[in-house]
Amino acid sequence: MDAFLDAVRAIVGPTHCLCGEAAAPYLTDWRGRYTGSARAVAFPADTAEVAALVRVCVDADVPIVPQGGNTGLCGGATPLDDGRALLIQLSRLNRIRHVDGGNNALTAEAGVTLAAVHAAAEAADRQFPLSLASEGSCEVGGVISTNAGGVQVLRYGNTRELVLGLEVVLPDGQIWNGLRALRKDNTGYDLKHLFIGAEGTLGIVTAATLKLFPRPVATRTVWLAIPHPMAAVALLGQMRARAGDRLTAFELVSRVSLDLVLQHMPGARDPLPTVHPWYVLAELTDTVRDASLDAMAETLTAEVLESGLVQDGTVASSEAQARALWALREHISEAQKREGYSIKHDISLPVSAIPDFLDDVAGRLEQVWPGLRIVCFGHLGDGNLHYNLSLPVSADNAGLIARSSDVSGLVHDRVHRFGGSISAEHGIGQLKRGLLPRYKSEVELDLMRRIKAAMDPTGRMNPGKVL
């Protein structure tokens, strides 16, 4: 008999401890790029069971891999292939514990989906503004562990700016209850920030208190055709100057990206009658019912058309039309997945540097790999781009894939040259772990290692990720 597995089953129950083939669906990442192995997959029901599992792992010297919705893109929630780890799957921690409309705060467990958080906020006539294409399956714990961004960072910030407090099971099995709903608490180190973006390497987030905001009652969505990203940067400045915080989203979409959606996603329709090289998807919102958002959207669209920054455009005249426009942006990743393998980059740059970066790196890539297809889209409002590469004929990709490290090296070196980051919102995981020494200073890495050593001296938490 396996005493360790017996102890795990005693905590979560026999039906919530999977081994062998039954565990296989949880051992491969969403992209299918990483597949690991584990001694078992355990499904705790609450924070106490998570803590008990961690203590059992400490006693048996077993590594721990936390996992939520398993929608990550960097292999951060997939175990290594040594078969030693216990994968702690947190989807059963799926309760909304408390909604406080008066304090604009909501406390949710780690396994609550982002869509469920949105629904709970809306039931209290509030909104939680973090919006991701995977919101129906991504979960609070994973969103926090990767410091996810999404389309409304322009106004509301990344996940880090939206978390008031955390509950965390530490590497020794202790529970830290930091579920404070305070905007101001100046009593020393703000410990929650250690765990946001740490990808489960310092502890397991089991619940979070999140910021809520007044729910918008007026929304206008516009789709604009532009000749070049330089026009998008100028357009962003013009729209922010006129609309202020009413401009909540500003997305850049290349024609190549749109073509993939039109090809692979049933029901997708081109919003404009003619083809253009680039597009902007922007959204204006307001919490005041009598705000003249219609007039502002129409006026802004007319002004930018007259300015020459925009070649054509349309304003969604209904909620259904707005959803259709957003679907074009949100389905790009799925369309790419259906098209086949691509080399993905989640990068950020100073907004003003994006046009020069795109021209520079495209020219360099074309010299080395003529005919390379660049699928570029992302949250231009906060400088976050998804810069993905493949060849137009999937069968030709084998050679490119074999040289993916060279391809990514060129892209990342240019990102670094333009003052950017090689990871904006997807995290590090396994995919980019080996890249950090090239782009982070030794001082930064040493500080990170010291924090890891102090909190997880045995290296038990999510080994092989980040550091």
Q: Kindly, what is the distance between the CA atoms of the first and last residues, rounded to a whole number of angstroms?
A: 35 Å
**Helix proportion range:** 25-40%
Mean pLDDT value: 93
Total number of strands: 18
Principal-axis shape: globular
- Arrangement of strands in the largest sheet: 15-12-14-13-17-18-16
Unreliable spans are none
Give me the Rg, rounded. Answer: 23 Å
The largest pleated sheet is described as: 7 strands, antiparallel
- Alpha plus pi helix count: 16
Quick summary:
The chain is an alpha+beta fold and 467 residues long.
Question: Mind explaining what this structure looks like?
Answer:
With 467 residues, the protein is α+β, with helices and mostly antiparallel strands. The protein has 16 helices and 18 strands. The strands form 4 sheets. It has a 7-stranded antiparallel β-sheet with strand order 15-12-14-13-17-18-16, sandwiched between helices. A 5-stranded antiparallel β-sheet has the order 5-6-10-8-9. Strands 1-2-4-3 form a 4-stranded mixed β-sheet. The two termini are 35 Å apart.
Task: List descriptors.
5-stranded antiparallel β-sheet; alpha+beta; 467 residues
Write the layout of secondary structure elements.
Blueprint (H helix, E strand, L loop, with lengths): L2 H10 L4 E2 L21 E3 L4 H14 L3 E4 L18 E4 L6 E5 L4 E5 L4 H10 L2 E2 L12 H6 L7 H4 L6 E7 L5 E4 L13 H4 L8 E8 L1 E2 L3 E9 L2 H15 L3 E8 H10 L13 E9 L6 H15 L4 E4 L3 H12 L1 H8 L6 E3 L5 H15 L4 E7 L4 E7 L6 H6 L1 H14 L18 H4 L2 H14 L12
Parallel strand pairs: 2-4, 3-4
Antiparallel strand pairs: 1-2, 5-6, 6-10, 7-11, 8-9, 8-10, 12-14, 12-15, 13-14, 13-17, 16-18, 17-18
Helix pairs in contact: 1-2, 8-11, 12-14
